[in-house]
Amino acid sequence: MEIEKNNRMNSLFEFYGALLTEKQHSYLELYYGDDYSLGEIATEFDVSRQAVYDNIRRTEASLEEYESKLHLLANYQAQNQAVDALVAYVRVNYPQDTRLSTLLTRVADQAAR
Prior knowledge:
DNA binding; 6 helices; UPF0122 protein ACFQ5J_03880; mainly alpha; 113 residues; UPF0122
C-alpha cells in the first residue's frame, strides 16, 4: 500500500508540482523523490519534525484536490491504457501492416510524453 501511495504522490507531483510553494515543492521532492525521513528534512530546514509532517500532509491533500478538479493524472492514465489496447489489437490483427505500425508508434510516443 505504501508503494502505491508513493507512486501516486510522485505522479501527482509531476503534474501539479509547479502549483506548489517553494517549501512544499522542496519537502515533497525530498520526502518522496529522494526518500529523506521527516527528521532529515526537519534538520535541513531547521524546523520541527512535526512541522515537516504537517506540511507534507497538507501538500498531499492539495495535490489530491488539484487532481479531483483537473483530472490530469486520470486522463493521462486512461489515454495510455487506450493506446496500449490499440497497440495490442493492431499487433494481433494487423501484424503485416507496417504503415499502421509506424503511425501507431508515433501515437504511442506522443501519449508517453
